[in-house]
Amino acid sequence: KSFLNHTAYLSCYFPNTEKTDIKDLRVFWQKGVDEVVHEVYYGQEKHDNLSPKYINRTKMDMDKWTLQLLHAGIVDEGQYMCIIQHRDKGSPKVIHASECLLHIIANYSQPEIARLHTGELKPNEYLNLSCSSSGGYPEPKQMTWLISHENTTDRLTRHMDVSQDAITKLYNVTSRLNIIVPTKTLINISCLLHLGEQLGSLVSMPLGI
């Protein structure tokens, strides 16, 4: 995983138990079947075969056998393969191949609750609310409304509208809630954006009614 516009680190997982000199190895990274991402040709970096979008964006750490991909973008997501060949009696022989899957993460803004109408709140009338969060990646799982009164909290899941920017590929999400204004008790309303198991959740500031 890598954050958007940060450096992604892709490991070759090459143990090099034979302690082979880099000058006897050809190391190349590719994405998919036809994009060459980086190539080290018997100790020298070679740029002739690189896919244009990776030029000046990669660095190889020879000690850790790790590729650094600078300014990682959402288009860089996907499967990468590291292939290492040994110069064996003139004809190169593959001695190692491994795959690495890159996921890009962009932080969503803190969810924010807005009232969709103005004017005085009257008991037993409907209050229309929206909750929005923007500029994140990947697409979130769902949005949950939390309604707390006295010692209980109700969880309500409503439809989440999702839009994706055509250029940046970042997501904006919005959910709406209609709720009856309480007559006697104070209630606090928050909304929770679920980003997925490994990414956790974001919660809005509570709105008191």
UniProtKB/TrEMBL annotation:
One of its GO terms (cellular component) is external side of plasma membrane. Its main location: membrane. The keyword Nucleotide-binding does not apply. Residues 1-98, 111-146 form the Ig-like domain. PROSITE patterns: IG_LIKE. It holds the Pfam family C2-set_2. It is found in: Cell membrane. It is a single-pass type I membrane protein. SUPFAM superfamilies: Immunoglobulin. It comes from the Eukaryota. Keywords: Cell membrane, Disulfide bond, Glycoprotein, Immunoglobulin domain, Membrane, Receptor, Signal, Transmembrane, Transmembrane helix. One of its GO terms (biological process) is negative regulation of T cell proliferation. PANTHER family: T-LYMPHOCYTE ACTIVATION ANTIGEN, T-LYMPHOCYTE ACTIVATION ANTIGEN CD86. This is CD86 protein. It comes from Oceanites oceanicus.
